[in-house]
User: What shape does this take?
Amino acid sequence: MAHPNLLTATRKPLDITLQVKEGNVPEDMNGFVFINSGAGSINSDGLPFPMTLPDGSPNPEYGSPVINGDGYVFRFDLTEKGKIKLKTDILKTPCYYADVGTSPIVNTKDNRFWNMAFKNFGLARISTQLGTRDQVNTAFTPFKLPNDNQSRILATFDAGRPFEFDPAQIKLITPIGKNTFWQSGMPPFMKQPIAMVLTTAHPVYDPDTKEVFTVNFTKTTKALMEATTIFDRLLPDDLEKTELDLLGKVEQWEQREQNQDLYLEVENFFKDVYKRIDRSWIGKFFDWVGDVFYKYIGHYFTHKNNVFLIRWQGEKDLKSWRILDPEGQGIQINHNMHQIGFSKDYVLLADTNFKFSFDIMINNPFPHNPRIDAFLRRLISGVMEDYSTLYIVNRKDLDVKKKNVKAKRVVLPVETVHFSANYANPNGIVTVHTAHNCSACPAEWIRNYDILKATGERVDKERLGLISVGEMDIGKIGKCVIDVNKGELIDDQTKFLYLTGDLQKPDTGPHTWAVGLYTYREMLSPDRNIDKIEYVYWQSYGLSKQMLTEFIYNLYKSPKRHRTFSAEEMLEFTKQEAPFVLECVDTNIMEATDYYLFPKDYFMWSLQFIPRSVRNNDIPEQKDGYILCTVITTIINTQGTKEYNSEIWIFDANNLKQGAVCKLEHPELTFAFTIHSVWVPDAKSVSQPSYVLNIKDDYNAMIQKMGKKYKAEAQQLFDEYVYPNFNN
Ligand SMILES: [Fe+2]
Assistant: This one.
């Protein structure tokens, strides 16, 4: 059913049959498609985040990024001919229940634990006392244990452990690896029971060897978390006074160039605030300021950079190796490790271009004064690099007796956020299919004080929280061919495809403006590896005046970046606009051979290949199937205002151009922004595995380490609100 806000998402568990709006459901589909998404917080009743709280005060969650939300899983059941059934639910991690127990909104202001409540800090949801929510909302990794005849699935997240869930019930089974195994990304003095674990949202499973690989890394932004929580330490009176003092200052500061003097001045201002409120925090605050400050003058502390490669084969205790760079040093991850990959003989680790700077950890600390918020964002923002680094580990080196393993390093000359490798790697030649988000910053989101570059107008309020996909260069689809022994790209076989299309024509043709996600047949299959990926289905977001903000323009306008088009050219392209596209790229020739352009103002978020249940031998195997997409359509109603509808579209993978063969909807189905997906042949309830952790023991081990101040309270909270939800 049409909804008035673009970013509308339900959190309700659904168990429904989708209604056909157009076309027919193909009768030769089977299996299950899972799609992950964030669906707001326990306080928000889905999306959008309301502007005010029930008592009329500003809602601090308003305008939060849509990807900061509880994992809400869609399971499309394609096993009944001519029907698509949908089951959905929220994945309720132990920290979900801690969030409920502390929330002054859902558990009343008088609850004993309100002072430990979680708040949205940009991309993360944090309680300064308890830690960072593991929302498991990003992706999935299907796998099988040696004696399994059905698929198991992990739900994954960049800042928390993966959890296995029951694919039939969409209920969590267990986290993977004990809390005490994973190293926290937070500074050592912060003993929080829900540690922020820096890992990858894309662990991988090799069905040939039945190994799951993932990572755990630490970075040396000494007091990273302090940076994100300073405003939380200001009580309402202090916040008001600080705001008043800041108002005049910001006006002067805005005129100044960002240099050492300005950072010092801002540092001194906050130092005075902290002296006023809580002397014990001054030292730690200095650590934070020091980090921000040093970052800008080029002395970035690097004393505890470590990357651990983790291998899991269904044990309670995971095996890990510290990975060293070719010089024998710990690896420094500049951004994060959103994606990892593997081939027959190698594991591919990456420093991917999804930045992790301070500005993405604050939302709107001064909701009445967006000018202050805008200034602070500008002051502490960072740009992502214009290249990516792959670290390639030889799987033969993963000897259980070893602690450290050296990797080869290969620099990709383009920003990369996702990739998949061919399983075959003849003669040490690895082929990686890469998604390049060139000067397109997926970690940023549209904020309520943003101004559109093309028009000078304020952003459309309906888009608040959407990832800032106003790209500042054209995206690329890559095929990187790597000679691992030499540690370099083979230039004459490596290709970076970009397509502008003809923006003057209504049918622009295929394009790569803002390359997003992709899918191919048996991507992430729990049953077999794909030796050679031949046809990849790609999503590009297109160009929109509504998406390119002045902030993003200024952040990524530098002519010094590796770029195809200048900032000025990108602004002109953006003014011409381009719609979302679904396109098929033949990796043998690196050309887009089929495509479908979505109507203007339609949004396509996730895409998933579904193999046809009976092989049609007239069609190449990797094109023999369907593509399921989540689509938001825009409708102008009879009053002349916009409405939106959340729909599921099915394309014939061998003929995108004809448009969707079936469109489905349901009055209860609403989604704002959906993320990664997977197809699996079955989704049965799985047997209770031997590695299920005892949740009580697992978190009590962390609570034991807490400082005196909140330890007893945290124990009571977990005893009353968390443990009763778990059987053990
Ligand atoms: Fe991803």
Summary: The longest helix spans residues 236-254. Residues 222-229, 279-303 have pLDDT under 50 and may be disordered. The chain has ten helices and 35 strands.
